[in-house]
Design goal:
With about 400 residues, this protein is of the alpha/beta class. It contains 15 helices and 14 strands. It is globular, with a radius of gyration of 24 Å.
Length: about 400
């Protein structure tokens, strides 16, 4: 994906589900007017979820996900079916593709019920409509939005895309900084450029925050930790906020005067993804960690681990120092997030910039339902450094929690 493209976590995720040979891949190609997915008469052509980032009017930037058939067989097939179901955790809109010749099967009805249980907007596409008689068309009934389509002839494909766009709920988006800034407010961003920083560019949370500031007519000033003190001294007005990489929280907190509000990119990501309150409630579990307790440290992206990696090296060391104990640490990344969490004392998750808000909230809900405290990198690091209250002070929605 081009560096100038909309990040995957900011795209509308459209999951395409259905049995093998129902025409999922053919329908994707018809909807997108591109040969994005391999089409074959052989069952099971799609063996793993396939993600395709693109622009799809009238929806805009989307992530189209082609999933394995929900009727796959055998031990490996069952694993593929489970993966297809897991895609619903990050799906904003679901398309259930049904072979119009055979109608809804038992597998289709089971999946449809599961989609509704997940509160995911869904539309059923009865494919291969060109092969149906008028009587067969009239006999098709289902209690959710549906449409007869033909990936082969293009029947109702345009209308289907329009109907899909209308399904998207108009939820109030989570805020990052827009409710805190006035035009011309100055925000200082502390962005360490170390061995873990991607060459030639900023990491995604930094990009997102800069764009949010610019969109809201603010002024973003970007410095490395060594330049922070000098930069603050040169400003002719007090900055509205200082946002730092969580790894240098302790150092930055000593430089930034108490009358200037301070937070981190990771904490802003928790707010933006809707997980801020839950992460605050979960962080105090750090105080009760003992020897051999298992702590899950989970990241939403996959990247090459550095010798000073924050997730696998720095956080465990800070936790050992804080608790004076030797817990055990388990690390996951990308789509790897355990379903059964009962063995963990707590979960510490990254900011989730590469995950959409549905996936972040699903992971938080899993932890909540299993009574496992869950927090966020930035909140955990602020707590371990004794500055949590200060770093959350900018956010009005959590002030009652901090009293």
């Amino acid at each position: 994906m081009s560096l100038n493209c909309t990040p995957s976590g900011e795209r509308i995720h459209i999951g395409i589900f259905g049995k093998r040979n129902a025409g999922k891949s053919s329908l994707i190609n018809a909807i997108t007017s591109q040969d994005l997915s391999i089409v074959s008469d052989q069952k099971g052509t799609t063996t793993d979820p396939v993600f395709k980032a693109m622009e799809l009017l009238p929806l805009g930037p989307v992530m189209v996900i082609d999933t394995p058939g929900i009727d796959d067989e055998g031990e490996l097939g069952n694993m593929r079916v489970q993966r297809a179901y897991q895609i619903l955790n990050k799906t904003h809109l679901a398309i259930l593709v049904v072979d119009g010749i055979y109608g809804l099967s038992e597998e289709d009805e089971k999946l449809l019920a599961f989609i509704q249980e997940k509160n995911v907007p869904v539309i059923v596409a009865f494919n291969k409509s060109e092969l149906l008689t008028d009587e067969e068309r009239q006999n098709i009934k289902v209690d959710v939005p549906y449409m007869l389509v033909s990936a082969a002839t293009g029947e109702n494909i345009y209308q289907f895309k329009t109907a899909l766009a209308k399904l998207l709920p108009e939820d109030e988006p989570n805020v990052m900084l827009e409710d805190l800034l006035q035009p011309n407010d100055v925000v200082v961003l502390v962005t360490p450029i170390d061995s873990s920083a991607p060459k030639g560019r900023l990491i995604l949370p930094q990009q997102l925050v800069i764009r949010n500031i610019i969109d809201n007519k603010g002024i973003a000033i970007v410095v490395q930790p060594d330049e922070l003190e000098n930069a603050l001294a040169k400003l002719n007005q007090k900055p509205r906020l200082v946002v730092t990489d969580s790894q240098v929280f302790s150092r930055v907190a000593k430089i930034v005067p108490e009358d200037i509000e301070l937070t981190s990119f990771s904490i802003l990501m928790a707010r933006y993804k809707g997980a801020l309150v839950n992460s605050i409630n979960g962080v105090k579990a750090l105080d009760s960690i003992q020897d051999d307790d298992i702590v899950l440290i989970s990241e939403g992206c996959t990247h090459h681990r550095q010798c000073d990696d924050i997730g696998t090296v720095k956080l465990p060391n800070w936790i050992r120092n804080h608790t004076k104990s030797e817990p055990k640490f388990v690390f996951t990344s990308g789509n790897e997030f355990p379903i059964d969490l009962h063995n963990y004392k707590m979960i510490i998750h990254c900011g989730g910039c590469m995950l959409n808000e549905r996936e972040i909230m699903y992971r938080n809900k899993c932890a909540h339902l299993q009574n496992i405290p869950m927090t966020n990198y930035g909140i955990a690091i602020a707590y371990l450094n004794g500055i949590l209250k200060r770093t959350l002070a900018p956010f009005p929605e959590v002030r009652d929690i901090l009293k």
